[in-house]
What we know:
39% of the residues lie in helices and 17% in strands. It has 4 helices and 8 strands, in the order βαβββααββββα. The protein has a 3-stranded antiparallel β-sheet with strand order 1-3-2, covered by helices on one side. The protein has a 3-stranded antiparallel β-sheet with strand order 4-6-7. The termini are far apart. About 11% of the residues have low confidence.
Amino acid sequence: xxxxxxxLASDTEIARxxxxxxxxxxxxxxxxxxxxxxxxxxxxxxxxRHFVAIEYIEGTTLxxxxxxxxxxxxxxxxxxxxxxxxxxxxxxxxxxxxxxYVHRDGKPTNILVTPEESAVLxxxxxxRPVGETASRPWVVRSRCLRPGAGDVRGRxxxxxxxxxxxxxxxxxxx
Length: 174
């Protein structure tokens, strides 16, 4: 089977923790639009660098795909095709949220478009459990919140939907 080998670039404690978290998150996910994690370890032959082996996905980034379509097909068709991919990314986001994770790095270069024009979400290095920031869990301090305002999971999902709308808008604009 073909795989992408991702090597840890900087062997600091923070970089190792992020790398390990990425592997843990990706290993727990099973979805057709998320590359499978095959293996993690340390390269004993070369520089003893940490690595993850991830399923190879043939395709191009959403950014390159959108740029390629610009000017080659009618605008309405380009918009339809990019929106289809956007809905597929939202499907993955919904799956992640249902498993308790937020991707946090959804940009056009982290979305691959396969030759069949399906979207695959890659790079889980910034993924976190819902409701957790880089350093600590969120704490709601106000006692005067509107109903549901303390629902961290719901708020995070709303933020993700707004982020994705901006992502797609950038790919549809000429």
